[in-house]
Specification:
8 helices; 38% helix; 227 residues; alpha/beta
Length: 227
């Protein structure tokens, strides 16, 4: 479905990044984009370079898709892109697949703080999904910098309606928090709650308000999500 999409054929010259980033504060990209074509790969890199030139914070959701490219190709392309990333977001599998080697040896436990330090991330944020059944998951996240980790609440999501877009909702929630100068712990909490609520909504958009996310955050410590 993505093979002949508009973004797959777009080139850097089609965008006036001087104007786009002039008053911007944040640039977010998906790991799917550079996987689509060589022009999309070049566009993503040059967009990141332009963003950093203008002092714009850059975040990525790794979003590894094995049907789009191999692990080896993804690692080769993403390496130079990671040099421009401040906030890296991904599930644990994507982080281990794309970023951990050669830091990890054998069965050694993944050191996410070491990965954050190696790539120069301000924060490396991983989402954790534990699937008890098709309609019940446990959902949480951890943020790492070079020295520490911060864990979110673990949500028990019951009667799942649609998992699609949960990761995007999480990323959007995290960016919302950090743009609004939430402490990382609060931004992580907001993001995790937003991602949890998305599981109760059909389609790929998180049709909830900031107030609804805050109501879940204030709803006690049980972590149960059922709507």
């Amino acid at each position: 479905d993505r093979k002949h999409s508009a973004i797959s054929g777009s080139s850097f010259e089609e965008f006036d990044f001087e104007a786009i980033f002039e008053n911007a504060s944040w640039f977010h990209w998906s790991g799917i984009t550079p996987a689509l074509s060589e022009t999309a790969e070049d566009l993503t890199l040059k967009a990141c370079q332009a963003a950093k030139k203008h002092g714009v914070r850059v975040s990525v959701d790794l979003n590894y898709r094995s049907k789009l490219w191999t692990r080896e190709k993804a690692r080769k392309v993403l390496g130079p892109l990671m040099e421009h990333v401040d906030i890296c977001i991904g599930n644990e599998h994507d982080v281990r697949t794309l970023l951990s080697d050669p830091l990890q040896k054998g069965d050694e436990k993944t050191d996410y703080s070491a990965i954050a330090e190696a790539y120069g991330f301000t924060w490396l944020v991983t989402t954790i999904r534990e699937g008890e059944s098709a309609d019940r998951n446990f959902w949480s996240a951890v943020a790492y910098d070079t020295e520490r980790s911060i864990e979110s609440k673990r949500y028990d999501i019951q009667s799942i309606v649609d998992r699609v877009g949960g990761g995007d909702a999480f990323s959007a929630g995290l960016i919302h928090g950090l743009i609004n100068k939430y402490p990382i712990k609060d931004a992580l909490a907001f993001a995790t709650a937003a991602g949890a609520l998305k599981h109760t909504i059909p389609g790929d958009q998180n049709l909830v308000s900031t107030k609804e996310v805050e109501q879940l955050l204030e709803g006690g410590s049980s972590g149960k999500v059922q709507r």
